[in-house]
Structure formats: structure tokens, C-alpha cells
Amino acid sequence: MNTEPKKVDLSRLRQQVENEIETYVYDFPDNAIGNPWTDAAVQQGLAQFRASLIEPYWAEVEIRDTFEQIGMIEAPRRTCAAVADDGKGVLLMFDPAVDSFVLAERGKTGLTTFGVRGDAVGCFLAR
User: Fold this and answer.
1) What is the share, in percent, of the chain residues with pLDDT greater than 90?
2) Helix or strand run (H / E) with residue 60
3) Distance (Å, rounded) from C-alpha 89 to C-alpha 93?
């Protein structure tokens, strides 16, 4: 297992995520495909995110974001910080190696990413 990254303060990470939730502004570009979310749907998603926040902790995650990684017998593993758990098997993780948030699912072999990366709120709402 990788060693715990030293440069990320977990309490500050939690504060950063809470701030992102509180200051989130939903934007649906004019040239976007699909239908915009209603304000009620956005607020419900943010409320679910708040309720899913956990005390951050370090965990080893199997990285399966690309077609190449999906096809590997053994995918790369990283130590990431879990920051939210939706209670349905999906966790929001912070990956300090690439300075982004990523969704991971809990399975028989542990936590595995599946290609959803970006900002904390956008990732969580994409579950």
C-alpha cells in the first residue's frame, strides 16, 4: 500500500469541500446537450452531498479511469482521501497525485475509480 501523502491536511480538505458545497452555483451553458436540472434537484443533490460528508481518511484505490486501465490485469493503485460516502457504495475521493476529486465504488476487491473526475460538487452530483 502507498504511504499516506503528507502534503494534504485532511481537516482543511474537509473545509474546502464544505466551502465548495456552500458556494456552488449551477451553470447550464447555452450550448449544452440535454435538459438543465431544476433548482429543487440541485438543492436536493447538495443536501445529499452535505449528509454524505465523512471525516476524511486515507484509503488505497485502484485506478480504472481509462480504457487502458480497465483492460489491465493489475491497475495502478494510489492512496486517496475519502471525503464523502453516499451509503450506496460510491465514495468521493481526493486524489492528491493529480489534485482532483474522483468517484470510486466499493466492491469485492476494495475501492475502484471509474473515470468520473473533477471538482467535488460536480463529481458527487454525477453519481
Assistant:
1) 78
2) strand 53-62
3) 13
- C-alpha to C-alpha distance for 91 and 113, rounded to whole angstroms: 9
Could you tell me which residues are beta bridge partners of residue 23? none
Q: Which residues contact 87 (CB under 8 A, 6 or more apart)?
A: 52
Compute the distance between CA of residue 44 and CA of residue 38 in angstroms, rounded to an integer.
10
Calculate mean pLDDT across residues 58-67. 88
Q: Is pLDDT of 14 > 80? A: yes
What are the start-end ranges of the H helices in the chain? 10-22, 39-52, 67-71, 120-125
The residues, ordered by sequence, that sit 6+ positions from 53 with a Cβ below 8 Å of its Cβ are 14, 17, 18, 83, 84
- Mean pLDDT for the stretch of residues 84-112: 95
